[in-house]
């Protein structure tokens, strides 16, 4: 009978997975970043060309759209941004051999970080560049900057500090001037900083630099904040024009000036996606005295591509933005970066009628591209190239054997670029839509079932019908997905057969469930007040970048809000005992929540309003001194605190009496010592000589505690889960024997708590010291909340009894009547605090919704080197463990202080199932909110920094919650009911139950 | 709750109408209700809410130094940007001004409420002259009429006693406001206010919420205590009914409860805009919750006025209908009565 609800929960999980899979495939583009470096010998003619320029000034005006510098802007021209930055057009007109303007195509995603990677590596960065190191956003691939650095060139840098996160160590320290890039409100300070440092460097007589990077942000910020059609834009571009005039003034013969926009901007001034205006960037090359291009050059037309800017009268010479990378590398006499996919720009190498120099450049270029593709093909992600590989090979063949090498090699590099672009660089709106639809319909279906289960008294057969229906309709959906797939495939891009099938199965079964469950539901006016306000606010908050990155502060606010109704009920409690209990435990809960909220590792957007408290400083990762002092007593004392809670219902018997006094304190304490030793080892408190011994001790301790939990505690729980004690009094003569069961009232909840503690201890072991304190506080909060919920249900039941005309009759009634269910049964408002607490603990244990806060340290608690699959498992346990564990606690709301009789405990099972569905629903809603916002705002400045990481976290959390719910419901609750059945199953009827309750 | 309260109320109004019928021999004024001076209530709410708004928007701009500055600067002060600037440049000063202003206003408002509540308890009708019609004074006048003491002496004694009672209530209400201000500050910190900085600002916000929500209730209803005598039990139950069950029964209770709810909700909502990264001066802690609380108070007050008005009209309608019906029915009886 336990498979009943489990089947439905598993269906929910499967549909969630399908939704996440579809959305992710459409939204998150992945690519493997190869870390090889092109380290060929510069003197080798196949490696590079001899340098044409000694130095280079590389200026980026963020979001400089092509029409801002175009000599032929579209009509009607705008007074704010057309012909304002006019220097490039003037010089090109006056000196066509020394100045050239290109219409550059930057690859989407058109966000600054991705574009910086693009214009330095020559590849097509996607959001997730997978590689050997997930950690920072620092670049893993070979790049122009790296080649410069390895050639011993001095690189000066000023401007947007995104460069610093990509190239933390490459720039000359005394010539590095980063400025904060995400303060969109500030239009001028970055630009003024760049100007302040750029011009003095240019004026130097003995040039101490070889390469200057200047990244202006003002134009971009004006675009984001005010839009392009604004007088400020004109002033800004005017300022840029003046800077350029001064720069040109100060250039010497050996220096090439490169000016480019890293991407364009749309009509509102935003960027990030693949719109035509966003992918229109300006590019200008200027050489002061030496000719840059040969006007006599006779370049075949097929090598020169043209593109018409929207609204412009004529087409303009256009290049791919990444073409800069091989071109500049060769002009500086450097090897082309290993990952480059760009092609050299012909004009820069073609002299006279002879194409020798250009052919040489192109051959070097093509060979490098081929090397890269071969390496990618051999990498773990090589199968991505499957479909294109044959054509790439034949193009390469053609390039080698072609009669006109310039033509065929150019074709090869272009084909390679196109093939890779198809693989890596496009949002798939269809898949995004399918994913969102799946998630939405699945959450509607879950809600319908959740709601119906709370109303239907005979719910078991009903749920059976639903479960078999999900199976049947999944089958139907699979078939219809297949049927639809074949005619649609030619028209819809990049949607695989599997996608159709999965979507069909998910959507068909969801709608079948909705249709089946909906008639049981009546929309009432009263249901307006039951709208879960915290959930609605939480979901909506993902539409704003501020609330998303301040989520760790939003959650305590929502959590306290969600507990407020319980406090109000507490005041109305009819007995002083209930009132005191509710008020005391809610206060305890609130205080714990507030204390958890103190602990944080700040994310960079929260600066300067945030102080790191999880560690003892923002740049060091040692635990704060206070934590070191209190963590061991807390770890040791936590089990006895839990025991106090069990004592309230006298259920500190049986298994609890075995595990809580001995096993759990020793396990938790040794977990704390594991991390204390880790701190001693890394901060060398005892000197470096001890580190070997410390390492050995902590590895042993960690193995011991995890082993004890998994072997001893889990086995004991499986064998004797119940926390009850049976006392038999000697029968007096002629009387029946009297059996007293101590711990009866909480016979379902207490074993589940022990079960929960086993998983809690696992997570506790993988959590750093400050996080362990947080976990302990959260446990106290959880147990307090359980007491609050229990007391509030008592209050409701009492009030119901008082208001009914015959209280005694009411009390005698079966527990399963409709009115009882709706009064004292599970409510969504009881699930909300648990869901919020789970996320609160996630943030409190030193995590944030950014990849950089993953605590890699935890991978090494069991082994000193990276071991598969142990190390990743530990990191997952450390990161998602808090969410998993507190989702696992959700059946406690349904089982806490629930007596096991009448057997089978159908009401408790119903409530457990609903609690599981409820928390899954909460996290689905969060996932939907974050997915919709990141899909909707995919052009937003911060989509890859704020929204997409939050979506990834939401997806991972939902998976963790679903797994937790399945484990909790099937294994935890299932095993306990079997054990309860063995003890109480033979007891006949409810009268005995009442008797047992009395003698509790 | 409503099913249990309904019969009581109708019984009460029946009683009233009975009383009125006796008085209805007096021709001129048609009294709206016996227990609540609705017209005066309306005007007092109007004045009170406008003054509260004034306190929040204008009072903080009168810093002591700007009082001495000549009015020449006033022209500049009128611009909205400058208004915002003066309100936001020192949140502590703004909060202190709002607290001071609302303290005065709440005392004034609460004294009205208290009078109405006492009137309602004593059953004084609105039609009577309204100079010194308070319960205590009515009692005193009776004593005076009995002529046991010299007039002047009694007057002083009476006034002293009266003063004492009022002062006692006032003192308790102040105490309640101070205690709850601390409680509110703690709650605000629990909700996420900074723990180790801005404590004075947080406290002032707590004080403001306490002044707006608790003070008038404590002054009007009395401070609840844990005593076991009947009076404190009734008082405690009244507080629980009002602030935990949120079910007021009389117009005065509504005038107390709705603004209090509005204050708390407004303060809660006011915390939300702080999170936005707009970097505006008005996002400084705790300006938005304070202004949220004040606007919530005003909205709640007007809402109470609206509800009370509607109920008033409804009751008049009800009574008229009933009177018409009973008049029809009792027509023969009436004559009969006259006959006897």
TrEMBL record, chain A:
Organism: Somion occarium
SUPFAM superfamilies noted in UniProt: Alkaline phosphatase-like
Domain GPI ethanolamine phosphate transferase 2 C-terminal: 819-969
Compartments in which it is found: Endoplasmic reticulum membrane
Family to which this protein belongs: Belongs to the PIGG/PIGN/PIGO family. PIGO subfamily.
InterPro entries linked to this entry: Alkaline_phosphatase_core_sf, Phosphodiest/P_Trfase, PIG-O_N, PIGG/GPI7_C, PIGO/GPI13
Involved pathway(s): Glycolipid biosynthesis; glycosylphosphatidylinositol-anchor biosynthesis
The protein's name: GPI ethanolamine phosphate transferase 2 C-terminal domain-containing protein
PANTHER family in UniProt: GPI ETHANOLAMINE PHOSPHATE TRANSFERASE 3, PHOSPHATIDYLINOSITOL GLYCAN
Keyword Acyltransferase attached: no
Domain of life, per lineage: Eukaryota
UniProtKB/TrEMBL annotation, chain B:
Start-end of Basic and acidic residues biased regions: 17-26
Keyword Transmembrane helix belongs to the record: yes
Pfam families listed in its UniProt record: PIG-F
Keyword set, alphabetical order: Endoplasmic reticulum, GPI-anchor biosynthesis, Membrane, Transmembrane, Transmembrane helix
Major location category of this protein: endoplasmic reticulum
Pathway the protein acts in: Glycolipid biosynthesis; glycosylphosphatidylinositol-anchor biosynthesis
Superkingdom of origin organism: Eukaryota
Annotated stretches, region: Disordered: 1-27
Keyword Membrane listed: yes
InterPro entries hit by this protein: GPI_biosynthesis_protein_Pig-F
Residues that span the membrane, as ranges: 38-59, 174-193, 205-226, 256-276, 288-310
Membrane topology classification: Multi-pass membrane protein
Localization of this protein: Endoplasmic reticulum membrane
Protein name per its UniProtKB record: Phosphatidylinositol-glycan biosynthesis class F protein
Organism expressing this protein natively: Somion occarium
Taxonomic path: Eukaryota, Fungi, Dikarya, Basidiomycota, Agaricomycotina
